[in-house]
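Help needed: design a sequence for this.
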């Protein structure tokens, strides 16, 4: 899954996020200010869950699951905020609506790409099952069949996923719209845009890590900077620095497979391959038997974690999709919204694994 390591292009600047914040003459009622502060304090708490207890955790499927769960909570929070603000249509401009719906479509497309990669990795596990089957099936061509399946595994995990490749351009386009539209004469709009800015930054950060983990390239890792004036800014910057530093350290060591659970399976497969090539053809041989057992356990753990991550990403997909519906209903609009971006063709159907 490795990709050529080109020069890193940091994402250090994305305009002034507080074009959408409180301008001169703006006023937030105590209720609106309390809603905004509560939302941003919640963001800070969600981010604290992503702090690394162990630096080895950063590109593990278990950490990725935790990150997905945090994203689900954050997007549920913004949906609750939309309901609490009770926005009438007069508080919205078409451009704001277009930005929100365009962003949500991009997130749905990113989810589809990640689900596709999870499905591809699960298919790779079939090669490992074939390896274990051949080792337990004493025959004259046991060695040849085992080596063939191991070669198939190696080629599969090193292949490219077109949907994942396209995901990079979607993430880039999402990044380019971080500078949200300027808001005039709408205190509720100010609150919502500032909240949406936080959701967008954290979504981009997590998605860039996932794309990095799945693709085998750190080129698209984002160094997003958030002002400390945000109630969640300090926590975000700490987590971003810690996580990105560890990821770059992992890639600097030249690892081909960076997903922790995938690396364990791959190491186990290479160990079995070495024994078989050396002529240790019988699974009754203790050294090969132990290697096969280790490979079986690693593959089982990898498969289970992939299943759980896939379920979490499906859950995030549904939250984003229902968030669009919540906003549509809450706008109380008769007729069509000008420029509304439809969900992708796959949006209403879960990706079949």
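Sure. Designed sequence:
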């Amino acid at each position: 899954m490795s990709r050529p390591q080109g020069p890193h292009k940091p994402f250090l600047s994305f305009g002034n996020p507080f074009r959408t914040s409180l301008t001169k003459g703006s006023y937030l009622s105590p209720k609106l200010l309390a809603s905004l502060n509560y939302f941003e304090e919640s963001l800070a708490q969600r981010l604290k869950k992503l702090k690394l207890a162990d630096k080895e955790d950063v590109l593990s499927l278990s950490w990725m699951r935790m990150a997905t769960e945090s994203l689900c909570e954050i997007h549920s929070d913004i949906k609750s905020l939309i309901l609490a603000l009770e926005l009438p249509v007069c508080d919205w401009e078409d451009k704001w609506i277009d930005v929100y719906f365009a962003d949500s479509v991009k997130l749905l497309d990113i989810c589809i790409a990640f689900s596709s990669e999870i499905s591809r990795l699960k298919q790779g596990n079939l090669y490992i099952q074939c390896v274990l089957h051949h080792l337990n099936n004493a025959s004259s061509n046991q060695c040849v069949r085992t080596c063939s399946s191991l070669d198939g595994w190696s080629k599969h995990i090193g292949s490219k996923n077109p949907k994942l490749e396209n995901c990079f351009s979607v993430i880039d386009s999402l990044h380019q719209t971080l500078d949200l539209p300027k808001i005039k004469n709408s205190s509720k709009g100010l609150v919502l845009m500032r909240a949406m800015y936080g959701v967008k930054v954290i979504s981009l950060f997590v998605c860039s890590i996932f794309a990095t983990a799945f693709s085998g390239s750190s080129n698209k890792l984002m160094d997003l900077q958030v002002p400390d004036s945000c109630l969640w800014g300090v926590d975000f910057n700490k987590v971003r620095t810690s996580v990105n530093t560890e990821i770059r350290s992992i890639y600097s060591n030249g690892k081909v497979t960076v997903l922790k659970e995938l690396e364990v399976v791959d190491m186990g497969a290479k160990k079995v391959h070495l024994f078989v090539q050396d002529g240790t053809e019988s699974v009754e041989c203790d050294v090969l038997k132990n290697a096969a057992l280790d490979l079986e356990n690693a593959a089982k753990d990898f498969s289970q974690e992939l299943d759980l991550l896939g379920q979490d990403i499906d859950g995030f997909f549904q939250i984003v999709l229902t968030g669009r519906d919540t906003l549509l209903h809450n706008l109380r609009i008769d007729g069509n919204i000008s420029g509304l971006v439809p969900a992708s063709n796959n949006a209403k159907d879960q990706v079949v694994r």
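Residues 17-21+28-331 form one domain.
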